[in-house]
Specification:
By secondary structure, the protein is of the alpha+beta class. It is 31% helix and 34% strand.
Amino acid sequence: MVSTAYARGRSREYRVLQTLRKEGWVCSRSAASHGPVDIFAGKDGHTLLIQVKSGKSRMSQLDMKILRDWAEAYRGRAEVWHFDKRKGLRKILVHDAGSNGQA
């Protein structure tokens, strides 16, 4: 079976969806959007916006700003969930409107 970068990324996004749903979040994936938000989630009046990355993949400063802008617009929390073979999953806070708008 051929494993493309898209297929691996999609697989990780589905893992995030599964994790969030187990925690009671209502969530959806922004399929093939190439946008700043891969996963939109809501729970108890809170909004969570997630960009999923893996391996050596990183977000540019511009992409981080765009993700932060989205979180501000939705008065939510923005995170990057980074999957790494050696380090496991790291959740990186980008913005949290619940903490006076600062990350």
